[in-house]
Prior knowledge:
The structure holds 2 protein chains of 2 kinds. By secondary structure, chain A is of the alpha+beta class. In chain A, about 40% of the residues lie in helices and about 25% in strands. In chain A, strand 4 (about 345-355) and strand 5 form a beta hairpin. In chain A, helix 1 runs antiparallel to helix 4 (about 85-105) and helix 11 (about 215-240) runs antiparallel to helix 12 (about 245-270). The longest helix of chain A is centred in the first third of the chain and has 30 residues, at about 1-30. Chain A is flat and about 110 Å long. Chain B is mainly beta. Chain B contains 3 helices and 10 strands; from the N terminus they run E-E-E-E-E-H-E-E-E-H-E-E-H. In chain B, the strands form 2 sheets. In chain B, strands 8-1-2-10-9 form a 5-stranded mixed beta sheet. Chain B has a 5-stranded mixed beta sheet with strand order 3-6-7-5-4. Chain B is globular, with a radius of gyration of 15 Å. The model of chain B is unreliable at about 1-20 and about 165-170 (pLDDT under 50).
Amino acid sequence: MDDDAEIIAEFLVESHENLDQLDRDLVELEKAPGSRELLSSIFRTIHTIKGTSGFLAFNRLEALTHVGENLLSRLRDGEMEMTPQVAQVLLTMVDTVRALLEAVEASGSDAAGDADVDGVVAALKAVLEGPAETQVVPDVEAPADARVEVDVPEQTTVEAPVSESELDALEARLVAEVTADPVSDCVTVPAVDAAADAPNEDDTTRRAVDASVRVDVDLLDALVQLVGELVLTRNQVLQRTESQDDNELVRAVQRLDLVASELQEGIMKTRMQPIGQVWSKMPRIVRDLAVQLGRDVDLQMEGHDTELDRSLLEALKGPLTHLVRNALDHGIERPEDRAAAGKPVQGRLLLRAFHESGQVVVEISDDGAGIDPDHIASVAVKRGVITREQADRMEPRELVNLIFRPGFSTAAEVTNVSGRGVGMDVVRTNIERIGGTVDMQSQVGLGTTCRVRIPLTLAIIPALVVGEQGETYAIPQANLVELVRLEGEDLARGVENLAGAPVLRLRGHLLPLVSLAEVLGRERPTGDAMTVVVVQNDGQRFGLCVEEVHDTQEIVVKPIGRQLKMLPTYAGATIMGDGRVALILDVPGIAHAQNVAQVTESDVDSRAVAAEDSTALLVLEVSNGRRAALPLREVSRLEEFDVNRIERSGNAEAVQYRDGILPLVRLTSAIGLVETVRDDEQVSVVVHESDDHRVGIVIDRVLDVVEAAVVRSEVGRRAGVLGSAVIQDRVTDLVDLDAVVALTGVGA
Amino acid sequence: MAGSTLETMSPADAPSLADSQYCTFWVGDLFFGVSVAAVQEVLRYQELTAVPTGPEAVHGLINLRGQIVTALDLRCRLGLPPREDGVLPMNVIVRSRGEVVSLLVDDIGDVITVDTRTGGLTLEAAPANVPSVVRDVVTGVLALPDAILLVLDADRAADVPAAPDTTGGTA
C-alpha cells in the first residue's frame, strides 16, 4: 500500500506544479491566442494529468480532464478560436482539477469533496458544441484520440507548412531570448520562463530531469542545522590553532576552514528560493481580479531571480497577494474613470523585487488613483483611530500609512475582494512578524507604491564583533555602514554634546550618537577617544559608540529564549570561537528604543513623493515651558558658564571667552517674554559665530535637536520672532536670529 | 542527600513510572522536585553570559554543546535572597514550552521514586501560608517521610513575569 501512497504523492506534487504552469499559460494564451507553443504545452499537461488519473482510477478527474483535452485539441488544431469564454471555462477546469487533487490528498480518492465536476464538464461540453462549430462529437473522438496519443509529440514537430501562428510563436521566443532581464513587456515575461528554459520541447524534458532533484524539505533543514554546528566547531578549532606550531595541523585547519565556508555557502543556497515563485502566480490572480472588477490592467514583474529564504517567501505570499488585490481594487480605476482623467485606459501594475543593503525589497506600484491623505485623515478621525489634533499635525506620508492601522477601511462598500478593514493591518503584522517593514507612498491621481522590506536573516551571517566593558557583542554586517575613530581634537570638534543629545558632525550630516554602554543600562563612559560604529536601519543612520572593535566573523544566529524576546536590544545570540555566548545587537530595536528614529535621512526616492524641505533645528526652553527654535546651522557650540563669570558693561552683559569678550543676550527677553527667576550657578549659552562677530545667547535649557519640515505660521510674529511652528507637538517660536544678535549692538 | 552528583540522566533510563519519579534539588531551604520526564540533564555550574537590561531572574545564557540556553535563577525567581559570594549554582536543564531552559539551583538531590498508589501519598495543594510567588510555580506538595517535596511546574517556573520578582509574597 505504501507504494501506491508514494505514487499518489508524487502525482500530487507534479500536478500542482503543472497546474501553476497551466494558469500562466492560459492567461498568456488569452493574450496571444494563436500561440501554438502554448497550446501544445497546455494540451500536454492536461493529457498527462488525464493519463495518470486514469491509471490511478481517479474517475472524476479523468472525466474532467478528458473533456478539457478535447477542447484543447480543437483549439490546437485550429478548429476553435480562443475567446475569453473559452479561457474562462478552461481556467475553471484548472480550478476544479485543483479541488479534486485536494480531495485526493485528503482522502486518497477524488470521489469526495464538493467540486462541481459535472457542472464544469457540462460547461466544457457546451463550449465545445458552441455556436461557431460544425460537427462536434467529443465522445466519439475519444477512442481515436487514444490511439493517436503516442504520436502527439512527433506530430507537433512534423507539421511542415509554417503557419502564421508558428511564426508569431517563433518571433516571441526570439524576442524573449534577446531581452533577458529586466523584462519590461508583460507578454514576453512568461515566455522568458518557458523559452529560456526550453527552446525545444524535447530539451525541456531532458533538462528538467537532469538539472534538478527533488529533496525532502526536512532533510534540507537537517543539513542546514548540521552545517551550522560545523561552522561553530570550525570557529572553535580555528581559535585554538592560531597559536600552534604544528604546521601540518595549521594547514589542515586552514583547509577545513575553506571547505566549511564553501559548504555553508552551498547549503544556504538550498534554502534560498527565487521570488519568481510568487510572481508566477500573479498573472492568473491579476487576470481574474481584473475581470471581476472590470479593470484593464497591464501587469509587469521584475526581479524574478531575487532570492530569499524559503520560510520568508512562504510568509510573504499572503501579504503580497493582498497588496496586489488592493492595488487593483482601490488603486487602479475603472477604464472610464481613467479615460475621464486623461490617463491611458489600461492601468499599470508593477511588481519589483531586488536586494538592497542586506534586505530584500519588494515594491508593488500602480498608476491608479492614489491615496488622498486628507480623506484618510477624516476617516481615521471619524473611526477614532486618531484625534483631529493628531491628524492636523501628521505629514501626508504618515497619514497615508494610517491604512495599516487595525479597523481601518475607507472602501465605500466592502467588496468581497478587499475592504473589510482587516486586510492591511494583518499584512503589516505578518510582515513585521518576519522582521520586515511595510510602507506606502502615494500621490493623488498618479498612483501608489507599497514597499516591503525584509531583512535577510539567514542562519549564518557575517558580523562585526565589538567589546564593551569586557563583554562581547555582535553587530550584523548588513546594518553596518562604517567605522569612525575620534581622538583628542577631532573628538572635541566633531562631537557636540547638546545637553544629553550627543551628535556627531560627519561629512556635513548630523549623526545621532548612542552609547552602547547606555543601551546596556550603564553609565556613558567618558574619555578622550571614541570609537563609533555607524549603523543603519531602514535608511536611518546613527552612530553606536563602543569601547573596542574586534573583528569581522561569520556567526551562527541562534534565537534567544522567550524570556528575552521582548528586549529591543538583542536580535539573537551566537557562540564565539572560544565557546562563550555573545549577544547579537538588534539595530532597528536599539534605534527605536533610543529614539534615534526621529532624525531621518532625506528621502531621495523619486518614484512617488517628492523630497520635502526639512531643516535641523535646535529646540530650546525659554521661560516657564515656552519653546523657541533656532536653525542648527547657526549654532557654533553650546557653552555653560558660571554665573559669576558674567560681567556688565553698561546695560550689556558679557563674559570673557577664548581670549576675547563674548557679548551676551538673554533670549527670553529678546523675544519679548518674561525671564523666569533662576538661581542656577550655571547659565547655558548658545554661541553663534559668523565671520565678523560672535555672540552668546543665554537660554534656559536645550530640549532637543530636531530635523523637521517647518511650516511657519504668522502667529506670534513680533520683534525677535519670525513666527511660530508646531515642532514635536508643541507651538514653538521661530527665533529671528539677526534681530536677536542685533540687540547686542554687534554685527549688521 | 546532599548532591554532588554530576550525572546526566535521561528519561530513557527511567522505568515506566516516569510520572512519579522526581529529580530533586534545593533552593535555599526549599526542597523541590521536577518530573523526570521534563528534565533533560543536570550539570555543574556553567559559565554565564550576562544579558544586560534583561529580567532580573535571567542570570545569563550558557553554551550547552552548541545550543544557547537561558539560565533562570530560581532564588531570584522565588524572591529569595541571593547566594553567598563564591557559591556557584547548579544547572537543572528542563524542557519548557518547546524550549530548553536552565534552572539555577543551590544543590542537586537524588532522583526519588514516589509510589502514589500504595504509599498513600497524594499530591496536596501547597499550604496557604507558603508565599504566593512560590505557590505560583508549584503544582502541589508531597509529604514525604523526612521532607516536604514541592513539586515544581517547570513551565511556570521558566516563565518570567513582566514585573520584577522582588516582592516575596507573604514570607
